[in-house]
Design brief:
Blueprint: E1 2-4, H1 10-21, H2 25-35, E2 39-47, E3 50-59, E4 61-62, E5 67-76, H3 85-99, E6 102-108, H4 111-114, E7 127-128, E8 137-141, E9 151-154
Helix pairs in contact: 1-2
This protein binds coenzyme A.
Length: about 160
């Protein structure tokens, strides 16, 4: 089951994110994004009553009014990886981002993984941001043409921590 995260899920989310990445940095990023009020929404995958995956979408600050979201982090508990949980979270997340009014989503991640959901470095080619210009910096347009014009994007301060 995929659903929106509640405050009561926060400890289980922290444990899931830390276990997935094998370090605490990304779990701290989640906490900083919440504290900075930059979270658009968080989804959790729940299996047998336990959180087994998590994805967070935050707001980015573009030099125009259209809402652009960042997907980060995405985490699946190690014992549940490669079973479709991450894919379900990304797909549900992109649907939600569209409903939240996002025009596009940016991710910094493995192209071989995110390419299957429509992300590409080519789509992100005109986006200028601290992480742009690398193959891992990818975008997917939720509204046609949103990334066709050059765009300057700032990340929430939480990402700098
Ligand atoms: C990356 C991650 C979120 C994927 O979630 P998942 O539930 O394991 O993935 P899914 O079951 O949806 O998809 C599995 C597919 O993705 C591929 N895949 C998984 N991790 C990958 C990676 N880092 N790079 C490329 N492909 C990857 C698998 O090979 C598999 O391919 P197949 O469908 O062709 O067999 C999960 O493995 C994870 O939490 N990893 C550690 C944290 C991390 O790296 N997060 C991503 C940050 S951008």
């Amino acid at each position: 089951m995929i659903r929106h995260a509640r405050a009561a899920d926060h400890p289980a989310i922290a444990a899931t994110v830390e276990a997935a990445f094998g370090r605490a940095d990304e779990a701290r990023l989640v906490e900083r994004l919440r504290a900075g009020q930059d979270v658009l929404f968080e989804l959790v995958a729940v299996e047998d009553g336990e959180v087994t995956g998590h994805v967070l979408f935050s707001r980015l600050y573009a030099d125009r009014p259209e809402l652009i979201a960042a997907l980060a982090p995405l985490a699946v508990r190690p014992d549940r990886q490669a079973a479709g949980v991450g894919s379900a979270l990304v797909k549900a997340g992109l649907e939600n981002a569209r409903e939240f009014g996002a025009w596009g989503v940016i991710v910094l991640g493995e192209p071989a993984y995110y390419g299957r959901f429509g992300f590409s470095a080519e789509t992100a080619a005109r986006v200028k941001a601290p992480y742009s210009g690398r193959p891992a910096f990818q975008a997917v347009a939720l509204e046609d043409g949103v990334f066709d014009r050059p765009m300057l994007v700032a990340y929430p301060d939480a990402f700098a921590g």
